[in-house]
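Project outcomes to date are best conveyed with an example. Our students and postdoctoral researchers have been running inverse folding experiments weekly, and each run begins with a structure described purely in C-alpha cells. The record below, which covers 387 residues, was selected by the lab manager from last quarter's runs and is presented without edits.
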C-alpha cells in the first residue's frame, strides 16, 4: 500500500493538475500545435476554471504545398504568405473556441515560420526578451513548451530559446514550485522524450472534442488528413522539466562528454545518410559576459571507397575521424567561447524534407562527467567501429 501511495504521489507530481487559481501559458510554434498535442490539457485547464493564454510564435505561413493546392497558384509571394498566415490564425482561434479557451487572451508573435533555428543561431536576443516579458506578464503557474527533442526544427529551436529564458529569469519560481514547466512533442519518436514521459488520461468526450479542434485546421487537413486526424487517437504526453535533468543522447549523437572548455561528442553517421546531405553540428551557449555565442561545424562527406582511418580538422575547431565514407567516432570541440558555468546546447542538423533526425541536447555545466553512452550494434549496417 505504502509503495502504491508513493508511486501515485510521484505520478501526480509529473502530471499537470489545474485549479481555479491556475494560470496556464502554452507556447505553440505554429497554429495547430495546440490542437495536436495539448487539446486534452487545455480542456482540463478550462474545466478547472484556470486562466489560459496561448502564444503562437509563428503564423505557420511558410507552408507552400497546401497553399498551392488550395489556391491553385504555383508562385507564392510575400502577400500570399501573409494571407495564408491570417487564415491559419483564424483556424487556430476556431480550434481554441472548440476547446473552450478564451481567444481574447491569445497572442500571435509572427516570428518567421520555418526559420526559428536561424533566429536562434543568428539573432534571438530580442525574441528572448519578448518571451521573458510574456512569461513575467502572465505569471503562469503552469507553462507548456515544445520539447527540444521534437524533430521539427522550429519546435526544438523554440524549446531551446524558452529554456534559455527560463534559466536566466525564472529559475526561482521553478525551484520553489510557483511555476511548473512541461514539454510536449508533436513530431518524431525521440527516446530522449518518450522514455520519460507521463501520459495524460483522456475521456471519450475529451478525445471527441480534440478531433473537432483538429478539424478546424482545414488548411492542414488538405494534404495530411489521415496523419492529422490520427493525432486525436494518440494520448498526450508531457515531460516535467527538472533543474538538472540527465542529458539523453538523440539521433546520430551517441555520447557527450564535457570538461571545462571542451566537448567530446560521439557520432555515428551511416554512409547513405552522409551522401544525402552534409551534416552540420550546432553548438550554442553563453559566454563569460552572459551573451549568447554559437558555433557551426560542417561535417563534410567523404568520397566512397576510402578505406583508411584518418583524422581531419573541421573548420579549424574540431578534430574528427573518418572510416571509409562513413563517420563513426569522436569530435573534440574546444569551446573556450562558452562560460564553463553555462548550459551548452548541441544539435546535429541533417534534414530529410524539413524534419530533423533528432533534436537538441542540453548539456548542463559540469566539472567532468560522461553524459551518456549507448550501443547501437546492428542498427546502422555498414558502419565501422573505430577503436
Ligand atoms: Zn508545429
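After processing, the design step wrote out the following sequence:
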Amino acid at each position: 500500500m505504502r509503495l502504491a501511495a508513493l508511486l501515485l504521489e510521484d505520478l501526480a507530481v509529473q502530471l499537470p493538475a489545474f485549479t481555479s487559481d491556475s494560470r496556464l501559458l502554452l507556447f505553440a510554434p505554429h497554429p495547430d500545435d495546440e490542437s495536436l498535442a495539448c487539446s486534452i490539457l487545455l480542456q482540463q485547464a478550462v474545466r478547472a476554471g484556470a486562466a489560459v493564454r496561448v502564444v503562437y510564435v509563428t503564423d505557420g505561413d511558410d507552408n507552400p504545398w497546401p497553399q498551392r493546392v488550395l489556391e491553385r497558384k504555383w508562385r507564392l509571394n510575400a502577400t500570399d504568405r501573409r494571407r495564408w498566415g491570417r487564415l491559419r490564425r483564424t483556424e487556430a482561434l476556431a480550434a481554441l473556441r472548440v476547446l473552450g479557451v478564451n481567444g481574447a487572451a491569445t497572442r500571435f508573435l509572427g516570428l518567421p515560420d520555418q526559420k526559428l533555428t536561424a533566429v536562434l543561431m543568428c539573432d534571438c536576443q530580442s525574441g528572448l526578451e519578448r518571451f521573458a516579458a510574456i512569461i513575467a506578464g502572465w505569471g503562469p503557474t503552469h507553462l507548456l513548451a515544445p520539447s527540444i527533442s521534437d524533430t521539427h526544427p522550429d519546435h526544438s529551436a523554440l524549446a531551446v530559446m524558452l529554456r534559455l529564458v527560463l534559466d536566466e529569469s525564472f529559475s526561482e519560481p521553478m525551484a520553489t514550485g510557483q511555476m511548473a514547466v512541461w514539454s510536449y512533442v508533436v513530431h518524431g519518436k525521440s527516446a530522449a522524450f518518450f522514455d520519460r514521459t507521463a501520459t495524460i488520461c483522456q475521456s471519450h468526450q475529451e478525445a471527441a472534442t480534440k478531433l473537432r479542434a483538429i478539424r478546424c485546421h482545414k488548411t492542414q487537413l488538405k494534404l495530411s488528413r489521415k496523419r492529422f486526424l490520427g493525432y486525436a487517437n494518440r494520448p498526450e504526453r508531457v515531460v516535467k522539466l527538472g533543474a538538472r535533468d540527465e542529458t539523453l543522447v538523440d539521433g546520430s549523437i551517441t555520447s557527450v562528454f564535457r570538461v571545462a572548455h571542451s566537448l567530446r561528442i560521439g557520432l555515428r553517421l551511416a554512409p547513405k545518410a552522409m551522401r544525402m546531405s552534409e551534416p552540420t553540428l550546432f553548438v550554442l551557449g553563453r559566454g563569460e559576459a552572459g551573451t549568447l555565442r554559437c558555433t557551426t561545424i560542417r561535417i563534410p562527406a567523404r568520397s566512397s571507397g576510402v578505406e583508411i582511418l584518418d583524422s581531419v580538422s573541421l573548420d579549424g575547431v574540431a578534430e574528427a575521424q573518418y572510416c571509409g565514407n562513413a563517420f563513426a567516432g569522436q569530435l573534440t570541440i574546444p569551446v573556450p567561447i562558452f562560460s564553463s558555468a553555462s548550459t551548452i546546447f548541441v544539435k546535429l542538423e541533417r534534414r530529410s524534407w524539413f524534419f530533423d533526425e533528432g533534436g537538441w541536447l542540453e548539456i548542463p555545466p559540469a566539472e567532468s562527467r560522461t553524459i551518456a553512452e549507448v550501443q547501437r550494434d546492428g542498427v546502422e549496417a555498414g558502419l565501422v567501429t573505430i577503436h
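Residues 5-9, 303-311, 368-387 have pLDDT under 50 and may be disordered. Residues 78-99 form the longest helix (22 residues). The training component of this project remains on track.
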